[in-house]
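Data card: per-record layout.
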Amino acid sequence: MPVTHYEKVDVYPIDPPVLEQILREQNECVFCWATRDHWPIGMIMSYVWRDGRFWLTAARQRKRIKALERDDRVALSVSSVGTSLGPARGITVKGRCAIRDDRPTKDWFYPALSAAVVPGDAAGQRAFGAMLDSPNRVIFEVEPVEWFTFDAIKMMQDSLFPKT
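The structure for this 164-residue chain is written out next.
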């Protein structure tokens, strides 16, 4: 479709294989929750994408833990910047967050996060994983409820090379 303006961009979603590639290659997101007084707040956090869910971690004393216990509704935003796909694609997810602190989850998650954050450095991964594995650390499991994606590459292609 020829583009005459950029007011309706929801016609440019990210295709599922590209979405999956971004989520697997990227390891940072903006994780958002609501404070006690209902203000939205976000923090850049590292994540692992596994089994259709986002997995993140924080120390139990962080204020976001109490906030998530009050209200499990969260949002995450992920950019394709830094992936092999380059910039111009964005993902936002509304989801429900469960707080986990069981040993089986920690046993797979800490090595997975370490591999994502310290790629190609086995000693660095072991050291980071050991640091993560502390008594007061919890893991967030975010199940996506609704997706909003935007592929600016598609939009630019329509703008520069409109189909007639």
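Known properties of this structure: The beta strands are 28-34, 40-46, 48-50, 53-59, 73-79, 89-100, 137-151. The mean pLDDT is 94.

See the next section for split statistics.
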